[in-house]
Amino acid sequence: MNQPIIQLNNITKRFPGIVANDHISFEVERGSIHTLAGENGAGKSTLMNILYGLYQPDEGEILIDGRPVRFNSSKDSIACKIGMVHQHFMLIPKLTVAENIIVGQEPGSALKVDRRGAEERIRTLSETYGLRIDPARRVSELTVTEQQRVEILKILYREAEILIFDEPTAVLTPQEIDEFCRILLDLRANGKTILFISHKMAEVMKISDRITVIRLGRVVGTVEKDKTTVPELTRMMVGRDVSLERRDRRAFTGQSSLLELKNLRYSSAGVRKLNDISLTLRSGEILGVAGVDGNGQEELVQAVCGLIRPDGGQVLLKGRDITGESVRARKEAGLGLVPEDRHRDGLVMEFSVAQNLILGLHNHREFAKSGVWLDFPRIQENAGALREGFDIRCADVDAAAGTLSGGNQQKIIIAREASRDPDVFIAVQPTRGLDIGAMEFVQKTLLEQRDRGKGVLLFSLELDEILSLSDRIAVIFKGEIVDIVDAAGVKRQELGLMMLGSRAAAEEGREAHA
Questions:
Q1: I need a labelling partner for 204 at 20 to 30 A (CA). Which of 77, 226, 278, 351 fits?
Q2: Is there a contact between 204 and 83 (Cβ–Cβ < 8 Å)?
Q3: In Å, how far are 98, 107, 359 from 95, measured between CA atoms?
């Protein structure tokens, strides 16, 4: 067997009150894609930050090509030809692609930077690895996936042989994820060694050679991709069986209409964002909205929730026209919302768990005496009940929401909205950025709302999530509904074509299921 390019021996890292990495050991083979899998908070990012020199271990050793090394900074790891692409990009928007890539390593003299030479080298790298990026463009003009390519080119420019990717697909659409996986496979084909941090099983199984699973700071095991299964990996990650497959659900007859959208139209800056959108959400169903990001989903959510006023059409909630009503009035009428950005729109991060659990409810008599004075004992009692009922894991309900994991923050929002007992539950990217255990809990809660006779309008870029949760699926493309199909009968390939605007695929699907 060849000498491993990376050996981690008993790496231990402690922070106040927690052991983030507990005697972690594993090896990485040269020219392979080695995935580090585990739930949020398992210690994956801490370990990779140690390998990149951002943290120093309290115990243990790192060997690169069999030679012990100690990294006191990222400069030391870069000198050993290690590069890292972080989840949050580190680019300067005002500079060009080339300027971002060469910063700190400008070619030429102190008096004159050889920009042309740098751009030519970057073009060559871009073509070699199929990254397709113009080095002369400004970063501010790039899409998210193009910015990620710039980060990859930045470490390739520094001649990195070991590439670390920390949750690189968290901000990408399904189509962009497929393209990113192709890029990683091309990098491996060109001899690069890749350490890939993820908890998304589909991509882990698609590109990995070997997978090391970490749980609660310890290595559970390392397995060959071809000798394991998704159920086995999720069991290793979570410590129990987890199912994200389509589940049995209660059957409803004579379903009433809860939410009706009639010919909604909306334009912004002269561009038509919604074009005669008509949908009906019935009691006891989950209606999924599928589409490539940027095809009107955001505007549709805003129009339903009252954040924008449509140019035409109606929004009816249980037969009542709420098109001109405020956000608060819509919530009081029976609308619940799990927003896409939980930090910006769902929580006040500095507020306690208890306070966040009554946001928007603070003027209700249940929590405010005479509708004015907050009833703190009742607020604490409510928080305790919801903490237990929705498995919100926190030190206590007085802890700031910002100190909790993403999954537990999402549970706060879902618990608060469910406690209002809404008739219509709007969930926008409800599992984005969550690990598999939290994802299962959120999906289970949405199904419970559905089985209680509520209507759930689900917006998700995760096609697997749409297929496993929905009863019907509305496909949106360029602000129009291409078709509405039965989730149990539609094929993934048909949906994908419809998401790209193919009405022919919609017609074929209807004929096949007729």
A1: 77
A2: no
A3: 8, 17, 41
d(CA 312, CA 274): 10
How many residues in the chain? 514
The answer for 391, left when phi > 0, alpha when psi is -120 to 50, beta otherwise, is left
H/E element, 35:
strand 33-37
Identify the H or E element spanning 178. Answer: helix 174-189
How far, in Å, CA of 172 to CA of 180, rounded?
9
Q: Distance (Å, rounded) from C-alpha 459 to C-alpha 440?
A: 17
Query: What's the average model confidence in pLDDT over 371-391?
Result: 87
Helices (H) and strands (E) counted in the chain, each on its own, are 17, 22
If one compares 143 and 172, the residue with the highest pLDDT of the two is 143
Tens of pLDDT, residues 299-313: 999 999 999 999 999
Residue 106 main-chain phi, psi, to 5 deg? -65, 125
> Measured between alpha carbons, how far is 289 from 157 in angstroms, rounded to an integer?
41
Confidence check: pLDDT of 214 > 60? yes
Q: Which stretches does DSSP call E strand in 96-177?
A: 162-166
Amino acid type, 131: L
* Token reading at 28: 């990485």
- Whether residue 130 contacts residue 114, with contact meaning beta carbons closer than 8 Å, is answered with no
Q: Hey, what long-range contacts does 491-498 have (CB within 8 A, 24 or more apart)?
A: 492/463, 492/467, 495/290, 495/463, 495/466, 495/467, 496/463, 498/290
Per DSSP (E only), the strands in 244-402 are: 257-268, 271-282, 285-290, 312-317, 320-321, 335-338, 368-369, 373-374
